[in-house]
Design a protein that fits this description.
The complex is a heterodimer of chains A (383) and B (429).
Chain A lengths: L6 H4 L7 H8 L3 E5 L6 H6 L2 E5 L21 H11 L8 E5 L3 H4 L1 H9 L11 E4 L7 H21 L7 H26 L7 H11 L4 H16 L10 E7 L5 H8 L3 E7 L4 H4 L11 H11 L10 H14 L4 E7 L3 H16 L4 E6 L6 H14 L1
Parallel strand pairs in A: 1-2, 1-3, 3-4, 5-6, 5-7, 7-8
Helix pairs in contact in A: 4-6, 7-13, 8-9, 8-10, 9-11
Chain B lengths: L2 H6 L3 H20 L6 H23 L3 E4 L14 E4 H11 L5 H10 L7 H11 L7 E5 L4 H6 L1 H5 L5 E4 L7 H22 L5 H25 L10 H12 L3 H20 L9 E4 L10 H10 L1 E3 L18 H13 L4 H5 L2 H14 L4 E7 L9 H11 L4 E6 L9 H15 L1
Parallel strand pairs in B: 1-2, 1-3, 3-4, 5-6, 5-7, 7-8
Helix pairs in contact in B: 2-3, 2-4, 3-11, 3-12, 4-6, 5-6, 9-14, 10-12, 11-12, 16-17
Classes of the chains: A alpha/beta (383), B alpha/beta (429).
């Protein structure tokens, strides 16, 4: 079965989609968020649609450049640019956490320049949660309180009588199912003869983040059946790559890699394994919110967690073996200090393990395709 | 090699720094008139004596503790140790050494440290990569920026130095102060375990008391800076920042500020301006050019432009009550730590920062703001335009934005700075 013009997968190429329109027609709210370090199940239990902010398709950042200097992340700038042009006017709420210096400042810029701009009259509630930068018991207690406060703020802002434990448990079930389905699809790409490409897998992940999870689960089940019955992809003449680093919500980039003689057999991305690797463990059924918070806090981290580099390295080592990769492609969006330094350490650590590594920097939009292609092709040839 | 030499070789950059300080002070003594640039004359002398004593202590074998500039140095006085500020080492050597710190930046860049990360850390990292620093432990808050969070793990994972991370919340509420107080206490206890020392609370209190007094004096100095013309030279800004970093919590810092207060009072009384005539009063809400602090003197003398203060000088916190119980003391330390230069602005939302700037502009009769946006400081990368609009709307004064690297002249040179500011000043006069 061809997934070329699949309706679900095509959601990944736009921001707004028919599912969001249907959702809002029935007077339900959409809350935008930047980073996977938020308790999505809590929003779901509040009958809100969590929508991960991205800038898919954005080519310019000239409006956002007025407010953000050129040393900031071009992905975040592109999202602001899109928002300044009205691309996020459909949001009914906005949740920011201190994931990184770039996205954290969107709390103020959206407040002042997007939601308060002329002729935009909708009142959009904004929420902020502060996440510790280390993984400790005290840090968890802090974050738990933050999430509990967020729950109260959501109830107040959207006049919800109570986000009950029953609702939270139901959301946990739906989200765990969602992550399980994504892991199943991931397994199909890990195979020696994979059923889908890395670019297709990225499409699935992006689409999954943009629609209600109940529908997404149905779609993912359908995709799994379709993939299983599909002919395997011949990647025998390609090099298997583990793609690591900054956010990738742009298919141009993964296609560029896969058109250069590589197959993205696995990843360590937030539109990838970092999102679905860990489930909520129902250790304490009386406090589902605590279980949700534990998953977010203790899950496989991104480099914004300062003391967790070795666990990330272990994850890479496991994934290198599981996906039988020939090399690791580390990438960062320019000005991302977090991924830049984590990748610096990975480069040396992986070289010591004799794993071929390429460490590249790029802009969010594909402004330097030839340079990237040359470097990636040279790397592929080398391994 | 003797133990003394071996021990001393743990802080070779401090030896280089001391030599640079000695040479600088010799030049000051020989070239400048007796009353010229008192902050530099007095400040370098005080810093020099303390650095010399640190080198001796390191040679005796005391533990060398690396720390982040935003971890108040007086808190480390609870240990018998040699505190080494990583960021200040990079930047003060950038300003004092003839070739700056660029060799060490390049070394780290070659090792894979991204070009857009902070040179204040890059320099010290390069020195450490070359084994010029050997720390017994390093302590840092998990703030104020991504560069800190991203760069410090290098010391742990590449060089195997014990790294104590003191988690600092990105939120200013009462619960944040309590949380950070606990973090500070457990961080210091953890550091003590690593170096095999108990916390000496008596010494800690003494150091805090000294800084309480320094804070009070700085308040007085800042009240005098409100006068037109400003009675203090521009170089006071970097020198007092350096004084805090290198001699904070010590009697030398107190005597430096006492002497500066007397000089400031005298100039205020005589309506004297260091540069001769004050033509423009500027506030630098962010950083100065650490790769060349002599820009400050040039602005004073050549343009009559006063730099009333920069980010490292305008943060004041409540005095810490050292007569209370330990929990209260740690709470006070937490509040000071969270109100520290750059930490405060980075872990709060923009509104308080912009409001402070507006009120500073009014209180200090500023004619303009000069906002230097350093390549590393992403947490400040979204504020310039908002601040510019607010200053024009609320106070009617302009703001010049200059993008640069605070510790590396190769990005925006001193010449470019001078040209940009000269043209800007022409539009004001």
């Amino acid at each position: 079965m061809s997934l070329k013009n699949d309706f679900f997968l095509n959601i990944s190429t736009s921001i707004i989609n028919p599912y969001i329109e249907d959702w809002q027609k029935s007077n339900r709210k959409v809350v935008g968020y930047y980073c996977t370090y938020i308790p999505e199940e809590l929003l779901h239990a509040a009958e809100l649609l969590p929508f991960r902010i991205r800038a898919t398709g954005t080519k310019d950042t000239d409006l956002a450049d007025i407010y953000m200097v050129r040393f900031t992340c071009s992905f975040v700038r592109a999202t602001l640019d899109l928002a300044l042009r009205g691309g996020y006017d459909f949001l009914d709420g906005f949740l920011v956490c201190n994931s990184c210096d770039h996205s954290r400042r969107m709390f103020e810029l959206f407040n002042l320049k997007v939601f308060n701009r002329e002729n935009f009259n909708k009142k959009v509630p904004q929420f902020y949660i502060a996440l510790p930068h280390v993984i400790t018991d005290e840090g968890f207690e802090w974050y738990k309180k933050e999430v509990e406060e967020l729950k109260e703020e959501l109830e107040k802002a959207y006049q919800i009588k109570e986000i009950t434990n029953e609702k939270l448990l139901k959301s946990i079930h739906i989200y765990n199912e969602n992550r399980k389905l994504l892991r199943s699809i991931h397994e199909l790409r890990l195979q020696e003869k994979p059923k889908l490409t890395g670019s297709e897998f990225l499409k699935i992940n992006i689409a999954n983040s943009s629609i209600p999870k109940e529908i997404a689960n149905q779609e993912l089940n359908r995709i799994i059946i379709a993939l299983k019955s599909r002919k395997s992809i011949d990647v025998s003449n390609k090099k298997r790559i583990l793609l690591v680093g900054s956010i990738v919500d742009n298919l141009d980039f993964t296609q560029l890699i896969e058109n250069s003689g590589a197959f993205i057999a696995s990843d360590f991305l937030c539109f990838g394994t970092r999102y679905f690797y860990d489930d909520v463990q129902l250790v304490n059924r009386d406090d589902p919110l605590e279980n949700i918070t534990k998953r977010v806090y203790y899950r496989i981290s991104c480099p914004r967690m300062m003391d967790d580099h070795l666990r990330r390295l272990d994850f890479l080592k496991e994934e290198i073996n599981r996906a039988k990769v020939d090399g690791v492609l580390l990438q960062r969006i320019n000005n991302c200090d977090l991924h830049g330094c984590d990748n610096m350490l990975f480069t040396h650590e992986l070289k010591e393990l004799d794993v071929p590594v390429l460490n590249i920097d790029r802009e969010f939009y594909q402004s330097d395709t030839t340079r990237l292609q040359t470097r990636i092709e040279a790397f592929i040839e080398m391994i | 090699m003797s133990n003394k030499n071996q021990n001393g070789n743990r802080i070779i950059p401090y030896k280089m720094f001391l030599k640079a300080l000695l040479t600088t002070r010799e030049l000051i003594e020989r070239i400048l008139p007796k009353q010229g640039v008192p902050s530099l004359r007095i400040g370098t002398k005080k810093i020099e004596s303390v650095i010399a004593s640190y080198i001796e202590k390191a040679e005796e074998g005391l533990p060398v503790i690396g720390y982040h500039f935003s971890f108040p140095v007086e808190y480390l006085k609870c240990f018998d140790c040699v505190p080494v500020c990583l960021e200040a080492t990079s930047y003060f050597m950038a300003t004092l050494l003839e070739g700056g710190t660029e060799n060490y930046y390049d070394l780290m860049n070659s090792w894979g440290h991204p070009f857009h990360t902070c040179t204040s850390q890059k320099g010290a990292m390069g020195m450490t990569l070359e084994d010029l620093f050997k720390f017994d432990a390093i302590i840092t808050p998990t703030a104020p920026c991504d560069c800190t969070i991203a760069s410090y793990p290098f010391f742990k994972y590449k060089k195997n130095f014990p790294l104590v991370m003191v988690d600092l919340p990105f939120l200013h509420e009462e619960k944040s102060y309590l949380y950070y107080a606990d973090q500070l206490k457990s961080g210091l206890l953890n550091l003590g375990k690593i170096i095999g020392q108990d916390l000496n609370y008596k010494k800690l209190k003494e150091a805090i008391d000294i800084e309480n007094q320094v804070n009070k004096i700085k308040f007085e100095i800042f009240d005098l800076i409100k006068a037109v013309p400003s009675p203090i030279e521009n170089l006071y800004n970097p020198v007092s920042a350096g004084a805090y970093i290198f001699i904070g919590g010590m009697p030398e810092n107190l005597s430096f500020h006492k002497e500066m207060l007397e000089i400031t009072k005298l100039r205020y009384k005589n309506k004297e301006h260091h540069g001769g005539e004050e033509k423009v009063r500027s506030i630098w809400p962010y950083m100065i050019t650490w790769f060349s602090i002599d820009l400050m003197e040039w602005l004073d003398r050549n343009l009559g432009l006063s730099v009333l203060f920069d980010i490292f000088n305008y943060n004041f916190s409540e005095p810490i009550n050292t007569n209370s119980d330990l929990d209260t003391i740690f709470l006070g330390m937490s509040k000071k730590g969270m109100d520290f230069s750059m930490i405060k602005q980075s872990t709060e939302f923009f509104e308080p920062f912009i409001e402070y700037c507006i009120s500073f502009a009014k209180e200090f009769s500023a004619d303009c703001f000069i906002y230097t946006q350093s390549i590393a400081c992403k947490q400040f990368g979204s504020v310039p335009q908002l601040l510019k609009e607010a200053l024009m709307d609320e106070v009617g004064i302009p703001m010049l934005l200059i993008e640069f690297d605070a510790g590396d002249a190769r990005m925006t040179s001193l010449k470019t700075f001078k040209e940009k500011i000269s043209i800007f000043v022409q539009t004001l006069i």
